[in-house]
Design a protein that fits this description.
It comes from Rhipicephalus sanguineus. The chain is an all-alpha fold and 199 residues long. The protein has nine helices and two strands, in the order ααααααββααα. Strands 1-2 form a two-stranded parallel ribbon. The N and C termini lie far apart (69 Å).
């Protein structure tokens, strides 16, 4: 307890010195009580600044702790996606349920997947949601006879989830989704070839 009190006093002294450097030291030779008053005011200000910084740090730690606990609780609860969807019908049904609280729960479920950067994070989430077989049926806007991915709720869920872990624009996440969908046929072809070679 004394150690933390001494640390606070030391920080207050440093803050007072910094304030004196900024505003100048009072002229103690003038013989009035003004220099003493100035020192007291600056000491109080420095003390308030130190306390404010400590409370800010404490608040930041609490926010981080609660966010981590919330994510761990979500990870330990029953997931909304038991395994990646493999057909459009069931994925579409699931997508239609992503509103309100359920959407928020799903975003937290996705956010736990993580990733080293926004693109890697996006791809991990997409792999969690659907197989390459199903991804082959989609393109971002649904051109060339494919299904439109951007019309679903999933893209906004993935974007929000990525942005909880990384600083990323909507466009960055969209480009990662587009790329992942575009390469789905090649991934599926490679997986089939690998399975054939193993037999």
């Amino acid at each position: 307890m004394n150690t933390s009190r001494d640390a606070v006093k030391s920080r207050v002294r440093r803050e007072v010195d910094a304030l004196f450097e900024t505003f100048g030291r009072p002229d103690e030779a003038c013989g009035s009580s003004q220099p003493k008053f100035q020192r007291q005011v600056l000491t109080q200000l420095a003390g308030l600044r130190v306390v404010q910084q400590q409370q800010g740090q404490l608040l930041g730690d609490l926010v981080t702790r609660f966010a981590r606990r919330d994510m761990e609780a979500q990870a330990n609860s029953e997931p909304l996606v038991a395994m990646p969807f493999d057909d459009y019908g069931t994925l579409k049904q699931f997508d239609c349920t992503l509103t309100g609280t359920r959407k928020e729960v799903f975003i937290r479920e996705l956010a736990v997947k993580g990733g080293a950067n926004p693109a890697a994070c996006t791809k991990r989430m997409l792999r969690y949601v659907m197989t390459d077989h199903l991804a082959c049926q989609f393109s971002w806007q649904g051109r060339k006879g494919k299904l439109s991915f951007c019309q679903m709720q999933l893209p906004s869920c993935i974007t929000c989830a990525v942005q909880t872990a990384h600083e990323a624009s909507d466009f960055t996440v969209e480009m990662a989704i587009r790329e992942w969908l575009r390469h789905a046929p090649a991934r599926q072809h490679n997986a089939i070839a690998k399975d054939s070679a193993a037999e």
